[in-house]
Amino acid sequence: MSRLIIISNRVSTPSPTGGAQGGLAVALQAALREYRGIWFGWSGETTETFTGHINFQRAGGVTTATIDLEEQDIEEYYNGYANRTLWPLFHYRIDIAEYERGFAGGYLRVNDRFADTVRPLIEPDDIVWVQDYHMIPLGQGLRERGCRNRIGFFLHIPWPPRRLMATLPEAADLTRTLFAYDVVGFQTDEWADSFRDFAIHELGAVLEEPDVLRLDDRTLRLVSAPIGIDATEFVAASRSTAAKLAFRRMRDSAVGRDMIVGVDRLDYSKGLEERFLGYERFLQEHPEERKEVFLLQIAPPSRGEVESYQRIRTSLEGIAGRINGVYADVDWVPIRYVNQGYPRDVLAGIYRAARIGLVTPLRDGMNLVAKEYVAAQDPEDPGVLILSRFAGAAAQLAVGAVLVNPYSAEELSDALLLALKMPRDQRIERWRAMMENVSTEDVLWWRQRFTDVLEAAGPEYAAS
Q1: Is 455 in the same domain as 433?
Q2: Which residue is catalytic, options 156, 230, 264, 442?
Q3: pTM of the shown model
């Protein structure tokens, strides 16, 4: 292929200092460095009137192209349909999903604006790779504008079971737009199975092969491709000066106690309330361990305009305050709760200092924090990963992680005690098994797996 065109909701310019960035941003930047291409998306800025002006930048070997959106676009498309409708629904939270026609209309309008603006940038031999739930109908918009290129779509979050998906008023129409793509990728077989089930039973699609669906005159290939991290880079980051300073700082502040660490964006899907309650159960059941451990929870706030995110922040502050009020002593606080993000090299040092990595989402497409924690460990004295069985990463890391049901405070308590008492030889054996997967199925493997399927598929549109 001549170039790779990546399209996503937000575009993250590589930080020259290695500043805090999400796992998706790091993964896509790594993919773009392998190919000439462009990362296109929303700048995060507003404009009074949408003009379609594109701002081009180049940094860290990555070319970005961004557009500004109107305030109404952001409210209906991003804060509305993406984050108050699709995000909770796809994470099985139909109890807080909001189904508003205005949200759906804004979502389609912004996808049309993306299609109008990016279409002139796409050259005939380019491969287009659309990312995540913000952009589900974009492929259809590009087809309507004459784009005959190979176009793939990757969903970074779960696809909900059919009966949950059916609660979305426009579920059938939205799902049908995915058949404009040549390939649709999912993090796990479970999410691909859920999509396949909906397409067959709700749309009448025909299963021609295990991973090939036909609907009317369109053929769609499905692929499960769990995203990874840049393992080599993250191991190097864990040995950097910044990481060593962070490691020393955490060890000094621990004064001989074992640290349990959680690093999660402030979101109800991450199971933070349940995590705090499980930790509280551990403190109740094992008083002899109370002053021997502490939990560091790093939770940068996000989507502050959405009411459900405001509620979870208030709830977590209340739970953390109550636990600290009940159990703290003059020389020990059980929970250190921090609402800010840190650069990845600093996080690597924090991970390395932690005896336990606590990654317990209620539902997650993948969860790269789990893989980063593994990559940051000291091979001679690694920590233990406690991982939710409902995270996408559990399919790959089950061989070495301690899997838990995050809804069960008892299971979390038991897992914490098991991890704290686990002998070094068992920790090393578990870590080696996980590190083998993290190193082998890394971000480059993920990119290659998806683009190989996309290059080999069709496109049928090329002949039309």
Answers
A1: no
A2: 156
A3: 0.93
